[in-house]
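>> received
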Amino acid sequence: MATNENILNGLSTRLRTIIERYTQMNGWGGLEEIRLREDRPLMVIDSGRDGMLTAKGTTTRDVKRACVVSHDDIAGTLELISESSIYAFEDELKNGYITLRGGHRVGLAGRAVVEGGGIKTLRDITCLNVRITREIKGVSNKVISYIYKPSNGVYNTMILSPPMAGKTTLLRDIVRNLSNGSRGRPGLKVGVVDERSEIAGCYNGLPQNDVGIRTDVLDCCPKDLGMLMLIRSMSPEVICTDELGRKSDADAILEACNAGVSVITTVHASDVGELKSKPYVDMLVSGGIFGRFIVLGDSMGKGTVEDIYDGGLNSLTSGPMKGDVT
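>> returned
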């Protein structure tokens, strides 16, 4: 099923009609998010800019002209994305999202039910964020040679960028490239711990994104637990995961390295200097665990490779490389 059909089929009838009208006029190319907030305007984020939509599917800055999302819109959308059984998705609900066919993710917000110090589930859901996933095959081609070691294997690699700058898109294509291999570079066994279902975009356990032929995915699994589980069960040569941050994540990376497994991960940071403000990340950096740092930004468009550093934080490039994440 085409990307647009997977998304449209998850929206209530009224909202589906409005989004169809919008995309007929503007296309799907830049559409990043569809935001539903009960009793507030229907909004989209397109090419980094947000706008309210009218009932005719046009954008407006006048809140009085905007289409207001109703309780029925929210209820109807929830029924469709959950296949008429929202509480069959208890595990997804406590993490705040449901993954659609095609790998698109619907973020959820409402009343959290807390039990034992953790979120058990969500009730009275009033806000939905349909995040549209896009594979951009080949986006990692410009950096992949920096990741491979001269002999064999790959460097432990950290991808840095501010939010929404393309690090997950780049990571996903790195996974595909490493897994499939290329001329002179044999494919590697890759394990993906996809804690938020953003890398592989699994639907009913099946990756919706192309993550390569030698890749095993643990979906909706905490990074620290998943890395160790993959090492024990799937004998990966490389483990890839998104958004390093907790001490337990850093500890798991150390264990993976001690087991001879390379790690590729991402971190929210604008540059390598910002890593010092993240204690558990800085511990890995100062300990020489990572041999490559890829910094993304937007100086030449979204997904610009601003610089690539070695383990000593020496620059390996002659300047920014134009971004392909559009």
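>> The mean pLDDT is 93.
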